[in-house]
Design a protein that fits this description.
The protein is an all-alpha fold. The chain has helices at residues 2-5, 10-52, 58-102, 107-112, 118-131. The relative contact order is 0.15.
């Protein structure tokens, strides 16, 4: 949905959050629930500043927080940082394409170009899990 409509449905994020918290709580007890809650907070805090500065949509912040419910604080921060690198790379490619097509890339276009970030979050999460040896 992010690719097609630039939206991440709140219901999807809420379901992810509930399943992540429930699963970690069921599998690991109260320590799993605590780790899951810390992951939610860490995921939220990782992207809240870019959101406040206008560089991120609220759905992306909520999505990374929901991912944190599954993977915990360490991996979700890694995932967010890796997603930022991936997103910056995609942004650079889009800027290069824009410059090629239009002969120049204006600062205005550079600051207002939007692209779906959910795919970057997914790739960042998978990469973080691989790097931590969990996949």
């Amino acid at each position: 949905t992010d690719q097609r409509a630039h939206r991440i449905p709140n219901l999807l994020v809420l379901l992810m959050l509930i399943v992540g918290l429930s699963l970690r709580s069921y599998m690991e007890g109260s320590s799993g629930l605590a780790n899951s809650l810390m992951g939610v907070g860490a995921g939220f805090l990782t992207l809240i500043v870019p959101y406040i500065r206008g560089g991120m949509a609220a759905g992306d912040v909520k999505l990374l927080a929901a991912v944190g419910a599954f993977v915990g604080p360490v991996i979700v921060v890694m995932a967010g940082l890796i997603a930022a690198v991936i997103g910056a790379s995609v942004g650079g490619v889009l800027l290069a394409i824009d410059r090629y097509r239009n002969g120049s890339a204006s600062v205005e276009r550079m600051l207002t170009t939007q692209f779906p970030f959910a795919a970057s979050i997914a790739l960042g999460t998978a990469t973080a899990l691989i790097l931590r040896g969990l996949i």
